Design the sequence.
């Protein structure tokens, strides 16, 4: 049998990702709520008027476009986040299908990426990362390593612990455990250091658990690179945020024709911009090393040695 054309395979992964993304929206909405389970009620409802969505109102992406972003019953504007989560998840699944090579590996990567989407969206909303995702990932990673040792084919510890040339089950398990320890440990250390230096809690425990889970899937070296990448992206976004609040403050001063020293504007901008969730940026870092660890590792090697 001839293999399917690559474009078709990647397109199919994207289409699956779109459908899964639609389910992720339900998870993101219901996970933090104590009285709603992810699977019950089975039918989706409008969060505003409780109108039960029909099959035609529930097609990923297309329904949102046809309904022009509003609930059919109450005209409530459906947040842009819903189609965005579906689209992002579709792209991530297409990337996992196209880059991860083997089917079982692509599937693990796709599920982990979806977990990161859920963690990021809930963190944006509520400044917390659900334990179902982070602790769930910490338990899932060693199980996946045992089932699919190829998950840690690029992990140094896993290769060293394996018999022969490749990576065996025990080696992959060791790679996952080392990744969990280094991922969680490094962020705990950064948090402890931040507390010593700046005398305030800089790091949430949710971030620690998320990077531990990410390390379990990507390996210890990849976890450190993910932390570095995530911190870089978060710094850029934080600086942009600071600038935005500073400009807002100056615009208000000009509009009122009052005088406010530049230093005061800067201080209030710092307070306004302080609360930035770290989970989404950490998630981007984990996603990058998960999909492109081979290339990232080569780059780090070239730069460092
Ligand atoms: Zn409605």
Sequence:
């Amino acid at each position: 049998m001839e293999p399917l054309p690559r474009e078709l395979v990647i397109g199919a992964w994207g289409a699956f990702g779109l459908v899964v993304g639609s389910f992720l929206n339900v998870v993101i909405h219901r996970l933090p709520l104590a009285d709603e389970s992810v699977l019950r009620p089975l039918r989706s409802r409008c969060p505003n008027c409780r109108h039960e969505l029909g099959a035609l109102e529930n097609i990923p992406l297309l329904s949102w476009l046809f309904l022009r972003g509003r609930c059919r019953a109450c005209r409530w504007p459906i947040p842009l986040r819903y189609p965005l989560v579906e689209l992002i998840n579709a792209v991530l699944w297409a990337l996992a299908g196209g880059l991860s090579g083997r089917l079982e590996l692509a599937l693990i990567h796709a599920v982990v990426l979806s977990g990161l989407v859920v963690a990021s969206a809930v963190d944006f909303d509520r400044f917390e990362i659900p334990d179902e995702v982070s602790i769930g990932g910490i338990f899932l990673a060693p199980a996946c390593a045992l089932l699919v040792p190829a998950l840690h084919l690029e992990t140094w510890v896993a290769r060293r612990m394996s018999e022969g040339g490749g990576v065996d089950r025990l080696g992959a398990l060791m790679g996952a455990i080392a990744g969990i320890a280094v991922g969680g440990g490094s962020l705990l250390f950064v948090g402890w250091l931040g507390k010593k230096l700046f005398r305030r809690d800089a790091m949430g425990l949710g971030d620690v658990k998320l990077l531990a889970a990410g390390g379990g899937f990507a390996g210890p070296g990849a976890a450190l690179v993910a932390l570095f990448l995530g911190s870089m992206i978060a710094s850029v976004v934080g600086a942009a945020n600071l600038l935005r609040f500073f400009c807002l403050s100056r615009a208000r001063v000009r509009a009122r024709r009052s005088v406010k020293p530049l230093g005061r504007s800067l201080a209030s901008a710092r307070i306004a911009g302080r609360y930035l969730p770290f989970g989404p940026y950490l998630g981007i870092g984990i996603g990058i090393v998960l999909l492109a660890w081979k290339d990232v590792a080569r780059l780090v090697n070239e730069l460092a040695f």
Observations:
- Residues 46, 48-49, 51, 71, 73-74, 76 surround zinc ion (CB under 6 Å).
- Residues 220-256 form the longest helix (37 residues).
- The chain has two domains: 1-129, 131-305.
- Residues 1-129 form one domain.
